């Protein structure tokens, strides 16, 4: 018996009308649908009369649930993977199951569709041949500062953010990149209260505070491209980060400067900033 196919199906990020005819056809035709949250997916499935059995596959059970799904696929059944909204694997569960399917020789077939990152970038108007999808920033202050230090790039950066952290994140972006850097804040994409605002970071806090409803919903932030850094500077910072795991800032800066040829004083300032 030939193995089944694991379909990785993108689902609407808000507006159910964005479900493609192909995604509906695939979901109706598989033997099982693995959902991030079966309750969240129930609305979508009911809307299109999809009565296929569902199981939960989320960040807390993915490794435990994957072997059973792989065995089902090996026996010839087709399985669909969906998340609560958007494309599986992009700041959502699913990557482990997909990797296991590849290892088992099971065919993996993407069914493309909605993605909040792509949607926000398309509405940003920042001309670029590439962008970096960075997902969610770390929650802690020091880890967040370190992550932001690595995102001053010569191409746009796309971030996701939760409503309870959006104000703090906009403040951290302004502190790191300066008040003149342009961003796009996309809120509740494809939903009733959708907003897409392009503004400077120095204006972002006032924009958020101008309407109490703006602190609600799901956010995507697109940060305009920066001037970027020289390749040598990026390499020096990578060396510095590795050394800071075992050396104090002064010693790490001294060794990094010796290895890379970058100025020791500049590396020491970066080392102090990363150690805060």
Task: Please give a structural write-up.
- With 276 residues, the chain is of the alpha/beta class.
- The protein has three domains: 5-114, Tetrapyrrole methylase, N-terminal domain (Cobalt-precorrin-4 Transmethylase, domain 1, 3-Layer(aba) Sandwich), CATH 3.40.1010; 117-223, Tetrapyrrole methylase, C-terminal domain (Methyltransferase, Cobalt-precorrin-4 Transmethylase, Domain 2, 2-Layer Sandwich); 231-275, no CATH class.
- Helices cover 42% and strands 17% of the residues.
- The chain has eleven helices and ten strands.
- The protein has helices at residues 21-29, 38-47, 62-74, 95-103, 116-122, 141-149, 166-177, 201-209, 231-243, 249-260, 264-275; strands at 5-9, 32-35, 54-56, 79-82, 107-111, 132-136, 157-161, 182-187, 195-200, 219-223.
- The strands form two sheets. It has a five-stranded parallel beta sheet with strand order 3-2-4-1-5, sandwiched between helices. The chain has a five-stranded mixed beta sheet with strand order 6-7-10-8-9.
- Helix 6 (141-149) links the parallel strand 6 and strand 7 (157-161).
- The chain is globular and about 65 Å long.
């Amino acid at each position: 018996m030939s193995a089944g196919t694991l379909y990785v199906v993108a689902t609407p990020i808000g507006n159910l009308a964005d479900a493609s005819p192909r995604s509906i056809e695939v979901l109706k035709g598989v033997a099982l649908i693995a959902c991030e949250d079966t309750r969240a997916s129930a609305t979508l499935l009911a809307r299109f009369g999809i009565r296929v059995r569902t199981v939960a596959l989320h960040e807390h059970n993915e490794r435990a649930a994957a072997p059973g799904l792989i065995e089902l696929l090996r026996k010839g059944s087709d399985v669909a993977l969906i998340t609560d909204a958007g494309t599986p694997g992009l700041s959502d569960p699913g990557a482990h199951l997909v990797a296991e399917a590849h290892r088992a020789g099971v065919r993996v077939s993407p069914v493309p569709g909605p993605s909040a990152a792509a949607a926000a970038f398309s509405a940003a108007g920042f001309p670029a041949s590439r962008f970096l999808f960075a997902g969610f920033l770390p929650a802690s202050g020091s880890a967040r500062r370190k992550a932001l230090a690595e995102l001053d790039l010569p191409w746009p950066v796309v971030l996701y953010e939760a409503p309870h952290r959006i104000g703090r994140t906009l403040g951290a972006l302004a502190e790191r990149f300066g008040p003149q850097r342009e961003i796009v804040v996309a809120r509740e994409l494809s939903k009733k209260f959708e907003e897409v605002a392009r503004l400077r970071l120095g204006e972002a806090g006032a924009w958020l505070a101008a309407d109490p409803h703006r602190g609600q919903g799901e956010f995507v932030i697109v940060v305009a491209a920066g001037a970027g850094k020289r390749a040598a500077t990026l390499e020096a910072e990578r060396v510095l980060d590795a050394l800071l795991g075992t050396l104090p800032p002064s010693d790490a800066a001294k060794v990094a400067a010796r290895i890379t040829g970058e100025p020791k004083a500049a590396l020491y300032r970066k080392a102090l900033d990363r150690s805060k």
